[in-house]
Amino acid sequence: MARISVVVPIYNEETCLRELHRRLTEVDESIDDDIECLFVDDGSADRSREIIRELAEADERVRYIFLSRNFGAEAALTAGIDHADGDAVVLIDADLQDPPEVIPEMIDLWREGNDIVYAQRRSRKGERFTKRFSAWLFYRIIRHLSGVNIPVDTGYFRLMDRRVVLEVRRCREIHRFVRGLVAWTGFRQTALRYDRDERHAGETKFTPIKMTVLAMDAVLGFSGLPLRVSVVLGLFACLFSVLIFAGLLIARIWQGAPMSGYALLASAIFLIGGVQLLMLGVLGEYIDRIYRQEQARPIYIAAEKSSALPSGPEGAAPVATSR
Ligand code: UDP
Ligand code: MG
Questions:
Q1: Is the confidence at residue 319, as pLDDT, over 80?
Q2: Global confidence as pTM
Q3: Residue 215 CA, ligand 2 centroid: distance in Å
């Protein structure tokens, strides 16, 4: 029998909390494993905190963290991941768009040896076309840019083995994209397809601005590409400059045409511009390195070690837990 911690980020979800707790309790009663809830209130201004306190008083499986203000869902999830001590940790939204009834299937896949079971949306209900399209595009862009196998159409809803949780905890970057970090740890990952429901009640807490900031954190946190754009532009500008100059030389030597001052000038301008862009790219490359160093993610993650080896300097590699 394992202990499963369910981490829920909450921002003004007073209308969803009781129903969420009821359905989680139902799931808990339908399986042998123990489910405990870790509600992380992200600075709600409504009655969410009161309700969480009441739930915690009535049910010892409910625990909570209240953040001092609204830090954003990524920070709330991080607080939850830092404190959840189950054998596996499930991240789930508070609004019941992710049905808790999927959790037993996740646990089964975990028992089969998967370290990360992420729930991938087969369909999503009750969301506008703009939201669906921007989400669709976002997942594909970040997947291409990141160099990490970040699954598409997958929100926070996922189960992680304890050893994944321990590794994610070691990533302390401030601008964070938790889904990316979880995928980045590696281990054995598998998808579980599910149908996403409508929000139980209330409105989406992700304003377009919050979504844009998150998209930036995702792209910048996992890709140095924006810093390299200027290298490509610079190369093109230099190439263009050389082409103009070569054209002028050919016309002069073979046809005896006079050198056009304008064309020479254009060639020089492209050369200067190109060299500057290239140097910007070189600077960008150094900044990228400083930034990656500053993120201070673990350089490697060991999945298994022979027992004779001493534990590494960066803390013991976690050994498989009881599933
Ligand atoms: N959330 C949070 N802090 C925020 C915004 C959202 O903790 O600043 C929580 C929210 O309460 C919910 C989850 O993150 O449990 C996902 O938010 P939402 O359902 O509004 O996003 P959507 O499903 O529309 O993308
Ligand atoms: Mg939602």
A1: no
A2: 0.87
A3: 16
